[in-house]
Amino acid sequence: MVPPSQRGSSRSRPSPILIVTRAAFALALGAVSIAVTMALTWNLASQSGQAATTADRGPVLLKPLATRSIIFDRNGAEMALLFAEQDRQEVPLSAVPELVKDVIVTSEDAAFYDHNGINLRSMARALHSDIDSGSVSQGGATITQQLIKNSITGDHQTLDRKVREAVLALQLEEQMTKDEILERYLNTVYLGHGAYGVEAASETYFNRSVSDLGWAEAAMLASLIPNPSRYDPIDKPEAAKERRRIVVRRLLNEKVVDQATAEEINDTPVPEQVFERSTATAQAQLEGGSYFSETVKQVLLDHPSLGATAEERYDAVFTGGLRVYTTYDPKAQQEAEDAVTKVPDSGGKFFTGVAAVAPDTGAVRAMVGGPDFETSKVNYVTQGWRQPGSSFKFFVLMAAIEAGYVPNDTISGASPCRFPDPSSPKGVYTATGGGKTASLTSQTQSSSNCGYLRLGQTVGLDRVADLANRMGMSTIESYTGDDGTSAIREVPIPSDILSLPLGSKEVHPVNMAAAYAAAANDGVYNPPYYIDRITDAKGKVLYEHRSEGTRVVSVETARLVTQVLAKNVTSGTGRKARLDEQVSAGKTGTTQENADTWYVGYTPYLATAVWLGSPTGRDKIVIKGRTAYGADYTAIVWNAFNEAYHAELTPLDFPEAEPTRKGKAIRYRNKLDSGVARKPTTTTIPGQVIPGLPPASTPPLAPEPAAGG
Question: Domain 389-528+552-690, what fold?
Answer without folding.
Answer: Beta-lactamase (3.40.710)
